[in-house]
Write a structure and sequence with these properties.
Blueprint: H1 5-18, H2 31-38, H3 42-54, E1 58-61, E2 65-68, E3 74-77, H4 84-90, E4 95-106, H5 109-115, E5 122-132, E6 135-145, H6 151-155, H7 161-168, E7 175-183, H8 187-192, E8 201-209, E9 215-224, E10 228-231
Parallel strand pairs: 3-10
Antiparallel strand pairs: 1-2, 4-5, 5-6, 6-9, 7-8, 8-9
């Protein structure tokens, strides 16, 4: 079977990327220049670039044209209970934390439902930014009943919420239920993460459970989608 001109253009672009001729974020040559280089029609170049944009090899900026999509320096495994610190350090960065606020407030009806506690039970609320080499990466909002940990107890810990809870209680995290949601823009959080209005966020809503299937704490983790990608393994039932 004869290879099409569109295939020829796609392979040429992929080869330029693999050989380092086109770096992450680099602008592609003009459609006309590629067409002349490969002796194909400009329509074929348009079609090839459109396919590579769909396949997320290239990015399309309306004012600037197509460019090589920058690779994510981090990936978070959704199928494993991996801490954000571990994710950062496994990729060769130094994990850090910038604390925004600590508080202890009565649980709202939503908090009570998520944590399976009576309404108005006091919960510890921790707001922080997780950083990689001081670069803002994840906004975290954690809520846990004060019976499990108080603000003071957490502040005297080594910053790992799970370890702090396990240190002060007999509770042990056995699994987590996670929801993943794309967020286009959230002014307060985007500003804290130094994310532009055009940069999307990925929200992980996570409830951590003990061996008796009882909630221990729940979290809102907003990841900068330009820096973190997610990976999981799906099995056929």
């Amino acid at each position: 079977m004869e290879l099409t001109s569109v295939y020829k253009v796609k392979e040429w672009i992929l080869q330029q990327i693999n050989q380092g001729e086109l770096q992450d974020g680099a602008q592609l040559p003009s459609h006309l220049a590629i067409a002349r280089e490969l002796k194909v029609k400009t329509d074929d170049v348009f079609d090839a670039i459109d396919e590579l944009i769909t396949e997320q090899v290239l990015s399309n900026h309306l004012e600037e044209g197509a460019s090589v999509k920058s690779q994510h320096p981090f990936f978070y495994p959704l199928g494993e209970l991996v801490s954000i610190s571990d994710m950062i350090e496994q990729h060769g960065y130094r994990a850090g934390t910038e604390f925004i606020s600590f508080d202890e407030k009565p649980a709202t009806s939503l908090d009570a439902k998520k944590l399976n506690v009576p309404d108005k039970t006091y919960v510890t609320i921790i707001e922080r930014i997780r950083t990689a080499n001081r670069m803002p990466l994840v906004y975290c909002l954690d809520k846990v009943p004060t019976d499990f940990i108080t603000c003071m107890q957490y502040q005297n810990s080594d910053e790992s919420l799970i370890e702090a809870i396990e240190q002060h209680t007999e509770k042990r995290v056995k699994f987590a239920e996670t929801e993943l949601e794309a967020i286009s823009y959230e002014p307060h959080i985007s500003d804290l993460l130094d994310a532009s209005p055009h940069e999307g966020l990925m929200l992980l809503k996570i409830i951590h459970y003990d061996e008796l299937n009882q909630p221990i704490f729940y979290s809102f983790n907003y990841f900068k989608s330009s820096l973190v990608k997610f990976k999981t393994v799906r099995k056929k039932l």
